[in-house]
Design a protein that fits this description.
alpha/beta, about 600 residues, 15 helices, three-stranded antiparallel β-sheet, disordered N terminus
Amino acid sequence: MLILAIGLACGPAHADRRVALVIGNSAYKSAPKLGNPVNDATLVGGMFKKAGFDSVDVRLDLSASEMRRMLREFAGRTRDADMAVIYYAGHGIELEGTNYLIPIDATLETDGDVLDETIPVERALFAVEPAKQLRLIILDACRDNPFSKTMKRTLASRAIGRGLAKVEPTSPNTMIAFAAKAGSTASDGDSRNSPFALALVEHLPKPGLDLRKAFGFVRDDVLKNTGYKQEPYVYGSLGGDDVPLVATKPAATGPQANPQDSIRRDYELALQLATRDGWEAFLAQYPEGFYANLAKGQMNKIAAEETRASAEQKANAAEQQKARLIAERAQKAEQDKAAAAAKAAEEARIVAERQKQIEQARADAAEQQRKAAEAAAAKAQAEKQAAEKAKAELAARHAAEKAEQAAKPAADRQTSEVEQKVAALAPAPAPTLSAADLAKSLQSELRRVGCLSATADGDWSAASQRSLTLFNKYAGTQFDAKLASVDALDALKAKPGRVCPLVCNFGFKADSDQCVKITCRAAYRVGDDNECEKVPEKKPVATRDDSRKRDADRKASESAPSKPEASGQIFCSSSGCRPVQKGCRLVAGATPSRYNATVGSGNYEVCN
């Protein structure tokens, strides 16, 4: 009772309750480590403790879940507080006009990750909202953010600003202090602490100094120490009365100072902290005396509270273990029943799965049989078409050979005369690639860039033309696919790697990385566009008229007189006389068995 009475008599008048939360993030996992935030948070937290705050919670290197938990707990402490302050040092980011605080476990690979992996500044404003007189948030997070440089934008028009964006608090008596003006970055300086943190601890705890004037002094110091490159800025407004972070201590009254006043003030400060560390620091300074005994009593009180809390925690754990065991025994029967039902369901599922596999195998076998039947029909149809085509080509070739033989002598004479005139007038051509070599080189380059799968044989066929058309499509060129040109060869050589996807020959289609032959159903064939098309019905051919015309042409050619040959030699035999064929000569007295000759009048016609 005596100690309580002395404490009440010597204790100060009721003061406003002040709480603070200090967070410093340095050890980022997906970005270079920051040197100052942890040091700045420790320095500012010590400043709040020396300023006599009722609760100061300093937290370092927090993940996203830990930051959310700390803000939630701090919001509970601000309900009965008159002044609430949050100080944050670390990385921040602005996305489309909204500011976010970045925990140490954020990766921020895309701009969409900002919404999931960071903490919006509005969450901190919500935490200090219940305070009655002052709500203060200090953001030392205007550093050059490395995440914004590597972050992928899901929308090209989405803005990611430099520094933090301007904030206008909606609640009265709310202030938000930035280490640098909106849209600019702050400097960490060359020392252990940033210029902004050093200026804060210099001016904010001055007793009776209004916060607006204190932040003005902070601004002046930072501008001076950074060569006028960094300007702190404060958003929000306060009323007409001065709002100091630390109230002015009342002046001592009375004719004579009490020598115990300094010890009493230190005791009261330790009493406001109400922590083991505070009382141990007080006893280290004042090991003996009345206040030392009171401090030891407070230490014993804290030890008793810790013992009680430990015992209560153990009792709660034992009670929870007991309840868990009771619940587990009660649920065992239900678990056994559920396990039996699950086992029966699994067995039914296995049986159904086996039946499904059997039906699938049957369906696959039927499909294979169908494909084999279609392939056989398509093969027979293709063979039939090939035979008919070969027959038609043979007939056309015979007719062309006869027409060529009839027009050959006159054409040979005209060609010879033209070649002689051209040879006499035209200069010697410059040495160039032959058409076959150019086509072969072009085919080799088309194979290299993946546009041709056939071998390079020098024959500029339809497959080669389709390959060059594919190259035009995927390379953006416009070469004539019907001709093998030097310009196309140069363009192909300029391509370092593959240009076309998998290219298949006519009659094949791409399937993954292989070419599979196209199989058409009965009465269908592969058309010019490499797709199955219906085989047109053949119309009857009037062969009788063709045979009559052919017989008339043959009779006219036989009745026509023989044209003179350039050699002037005439060969006669038992069947008649005729000019010596071109490229042949008459030889007298030669042995017929050694030459490709015909016997007649003792002379032999020798050819080639």
